[in-house]
Amino acid sequence: MAMLDLAILGFLTQRPLPGHELRRRVSELMGYTRPTSDGSLYPAIKRLAAAGLLNRRADPAAGAARYMLNITAAGHAELLRRLRTPADHEISDFTRFFTVLAFLSLLPDVDEQHAVLRRRLEFLETPASFFYDGDRPLRAEEMADPYRRGMLLTARAISSAERAWLHQVLDEPVTARAETDPPALDNPSG
User: Fold this and answer.
1) Average of pLDDT values for 13-22?
2) What pLDDT, in 10s, does the model give residues 63-88?
3) Strands, E, within the chain: which ranges?
4) Which residues have C-beta within 8 Å of that of residue 151, sequence separation ≥ 6?
């Protein structure tokens, strides 16, 4: 299942939406790096509906050929499964992980949420680079090319900020989080 599918199910877990509103929300979440066109969104909606993960029903109040979309119980179960066990590339890729992170609070078990965050933290704490000398990752200070150095410095700053946040969340007592976290929705079919 693609990240687009995860985003669709995640937004529909929050409330039923018409297709055009769903497209806007998905586009805002995934950003300019992964634009969401009608040519990718509507086939994904059809595929998810055919798999029984969401329902499409005509919305006469919105006009001809307008549909209201809502997640099914099977779709909600699939969303939770995907959030509990994201693929390795969903942990390592910044944009994909942020899509997972956008809906992680829908998992009702904080321990399951933290397991996903620990996987991301482990990935971020493993030495890596965009550039290597053999098997050795190159550091920004070793780069003569100013643009490559800029890439590495920017990535280091982002990684440092994200690691600090992850440590803060993982070290925070669960009772303190329960007072501020939004509740997971109990009725996925709207």
Assistant:
1) 90
2) 666 789 999 999 999 999 999 999 99
3) 17-18, 54-58, 67-71, 132-133, 136-137
4) 130
